[in-house]
User: Fold this.
Amino acid sequence: MADTVLYDVSDGLATITINRPEAMNAMNVAAKVALRDAAEAAAADPAVRAVLLTAAGDRAFCVGQDLKEHVGLLMQDKESGTSNTMNTVRDHYNPIVRAIAGMAKPVVAAVNGVAAGAGFGFALAADYRVVAEHASFNTAFAGVALTADSGMSWTLPRLIGPSRAADLLLFPRSIGAQEAYELGIVNRIVPGESLAEEALKLARTLAEGPTVAYAALKESLAFGADHSLAEALEKEDELQSKAGSSEDHTIAVQAFIAKEKPKYLGR
Assistant:
């Protein structure tokens, strides 16, 4: 992976770190390619049982598109009569969000500062968001005459409802960690100096947990968001049969009977 994004796998946990703190972790082309490749690698690697998505520094998680690079690319398009720059949604943002939201393993986003635009979208694509108390969120898109991308038209209304999502998208503003928690965007707020430790602890707990069950939970939540109760019940039956036949379920039952802590294998 390029040094704009760091990637490490240890004891079943993949840690993906956006690494452009000098630019508030804004996404230039190199960072977008590296983040896409890292997310897809984590999704495909059977040794990875959970993912921690974080960023370098303490000012920003990710402020979205690197506008300095973006305006230069737009000028190149204008001179050449092309529109290649806006292909970044199809080529980069969409695959990143698909990999994060769609992988069969839990993803924890550790938000260490400002999350704006696509950076906000990446955090929303994760399954669990633990944030520093000084973190903030901003949809940002309308402020630069753009519409939502990075999955935000799907994720945000499902978390906070369509009316509140429309408010944040039409009238972009910075919302602090506490308001984000009250809206349902954030799962947990911690002191800034404790974020790395707390997020790592959460992610490691998931990496040591029942991977098949987590994958089924993730799939059932996504399915239930836009299907009927009858369809959701059928999906639960399908996924419970799969989870029930896993080695981890047998381990859990045996540990319960023996009054021991289960040691899951992730299969």
